[in-house]
Amino acid sequence: MVERLAITGAVRAYGAEAGVLGASLDVAAGEVHALIGLNGAGKTTLMRAALGMVRLDAGMIRIGGAPLERLPTAAWARVGHLIDRPFAYPDIDAAGNLAIAARLRGIPSADTAALAQAVLEDWGLARYGPVKAAKLSKGNRQRLGLAAALLAGPDLAILDEPTDGLDPVGVIALREAVRRLAGAGAGVLVSSHHLDEVARIADRISVMNRGRIIGALDPGGTDLERTFFALVLDDDVQRTTS
Ligand SMILES: Nc1ncnc2c1ncn2[C@@H]1O[C@H](COP(=O)(O)OP(=O)(O)OP(=O)(O)O)[C@@H](O)[C@H]1O
User: Fold this and answer.
1) 0.85 surpassed by complex ipTM
2) 4: Cα separation from own chain's centroid
3) Sorted alphabetically, which PANTHER family does this protein's record hold (predicted)?
4) Ligand 1 center–CA 46 separation, angstroms
5) Distance CA 192, CA 51 (A)
6) Pick from 25, 26, 17, 20: nearest CA to 58
């Protein structure tokens, strides 16, 4: 297995009950690993930690086999992410934002305009190329953020609730982009509240509850919702009685 991301014993506590309280997971090359959990379970915090956006109290994170704190700049350029809300420079148009993202990925400046145009078309944003990011609708801003995150085929993509705000066409575009990326050998860690969608795109599904990974769901399994709630309830009961 070629490892794209490994999180071991991660702790980032916000008080006794909140944050990440001891979580381990990995993402292999070519794999889509989904993280599901109730609001406040710790998914975003874990993803932020994996990207070095929050410092761990304990535990270890490796990207492409290298500890996060020693990851070379060139390796960071091969990591795409969308966390919380899509990042875009509000006063720069959609095409310009993608050109900047391409430069950050190390694409030569002579090639960025053509790449930005192609990516706009892939995401159904062609007519919004000259529109400032601040003027885009919520869903189109999400498309732009995803286009920037996945542009130029990163080795690892970390996507926090990527379907947020997307219409059904956008959801399909995302599904195809994620599967294409994994097919090309990337690892993808994705959080979601949509079990049906997760079952469509994920190779593995981990369930997070109250800061910990408490189990897994089989993406091909029946009645994922029932299994999910059973896992969460069982964990809640165990923690209350222990
Ligand atoms: N900077 C912070 N300071 C204090 N508490 C925080 C901070 N960041 C997160 N938390 C708390 O940690 C817990 C986990 O939050 P997190 O955003 O990781 O959950 P989540 O699983 O992504 O939730 P959601 O599905 O609602 O996005 C929550 O109780 C949240 O209030």
Assistant:
1) yes
2) 13
3) ABC TRANSPORTER, ATP-BINDING PROTEIN
4) 9
5) 18
6) 20
Ligand 1 midpoint to CA 26 (Å): 21
* Residue from 106, 111, 104, 109 nearest 89 by CA: 104
Structure confidence at residue 102 (pLDDT): 94
Question: What is the whole-number distance in angstroms between the Cα of residue 113 and the centre of ligand 1?
Answer: 38
Cα–Cα nearest to 61, from 77, 73, 48: 48
Q: What's the pLDDT tens digit per position in 116-127?
A: 999 999 999 999
| CA distances for 17 relative to 14, 43, 90, 91, 192, angstroms | 7, 14, 36, 40, 22
Tell me the pLDDT tens digit for each residue of 84-137. 888 899 999 999 999 999 999 889 999 999 999 999 999 999 999 999 999 999
Domains and CATH numbers, the chain: 3-241 (3.40.50.300)
Q: In angstroms, what is the span from residue 148 Cα to ligand 1's centroid?
A: 25
Burial of 35 (0-12, 13-18, 19+ CB in 10 A): buried
pLDDT beyond 90 at 227: yes
Q: Which two tokens stand for residue 8?
A: 């071991």
Q: What percent of the chain has pLDDT over 90?
A: 89
Ligand 1 pocket member 170 (CB < 6 A) = no
**Token representation of residue 170:** 């956008």
Q: Is 192 a pocket residue for ligand 1 (Cβ < 6 Å)?
A: no
* CB 19 near ligand 1, within 6 Å: yes
